[in-house]
Specification:
The chain is 23% helix and 34% strand. The protein has 239 residues and is an alpha+beta fold. The two termini are 27 Å apart.
């Protein structure tokens, strides 16, 4: 009569490969729940930083990645928000790219440094010279300095990305809560100046940030619970 013995580890507990595999899966799932499993971020036009202070000046960087494998990005248009005019906007030179700035006249002037401003920047267009295009697998950044930033919650910068094959990708979808956008526009969140932060916090009724925190906490709790159940199952089977 032949007996099949289970391998014994250094602790004297029989080695069970299948059980350990199951435990490993549970632990991996739990870890993903705790730390988050984000889907790959879409390579769309974005603005950095993502937040700035109302009433202040900021350097804003528009990052433009090339999404196509067979064409290059040759022109980028950024439209400043129509409902949140900025009195002062200047551009930073980008080697190999020319820049054109279009202005518009305001129905109501804005004040900057004690002066009434009736004309503001509307659209900024960067155009690549031959050899400076954004090729496949590459990205380029375009900087502007803007201010004073308006007293609004966010600024939405609609962007057009022109490719060498004639296609124009319109990154113009404005953010909507709970909706995943196909072509999201770059968004700059604005927070109150330091003296207004307490008042703004008191008036917060739990918007998108509260929902995000709630999902994060729930994910962490579920992940830890799964980890605990997996370890408990392993100990019972090993006993």
């Amino acid at each position: 009569m032949h007996f099949i013995r289970a391998r014994v580890g250094s602790s004297g507990v029989p080695f069970r490969p299948r059980l350990l595999t199951r435990v490993a899966v549970v632990v991996a799932v739990a870890a993903l729940a705790v730390f988050g499993l984000g889907s790959p971020a879409a390579a769309h036009v974005s603005v950095n930083p993502r937040t700035a202070t109302q009433g202040g000046f900021a350097k804003l960087t528009f990052r433009v990645p090339n999404e196509k494998a067979t064409a290059s990005t040759v022109k980028v248009e950024i439209q400043l928000p129509q409902d949140a005019p900025v009195a002062s906007v200047s551009t930073r030179p980008v080697p190999g790219w020319s820049v054109e700035v279009q202005h518009r006249t305001l129905d109501e002037p804005v004040t900057a440094h004690g002066a009434q401003i009736t004309e503001v920047v509307d659209v900024i267009t960067w155009t690549a010279s031959p050899g400076a295009e954004i090729g496949p697998g590459q990205f380029q950044e375009f900087d502007i300095s803007a201010g004073p930033l308006p007293e609004v919650d966010q600024m939405v910068f609609k962007a057009l990305q022109h490719y060498s094959d004639g296609e124009v990708v319109r990154w113009i979808d404005e953010p909507r809560e709970g909706v995943e956008l196909e072509h999201p526009a770059p968004v700059l969140r604005l927070t109150p100046a330091e003296g207004d932060e307490t008042e703004a916090a008191a008036g917060d009724t739990g918007g998108g940030s509260g929902v995000a925190i709630g999902f994060g906490v729930a994910g962490a709790v579920l992940g830890l619970a799964g980890l605990a159940l997996g370890l408990l199952a392993y100990r019972r089977s090993a006993a």
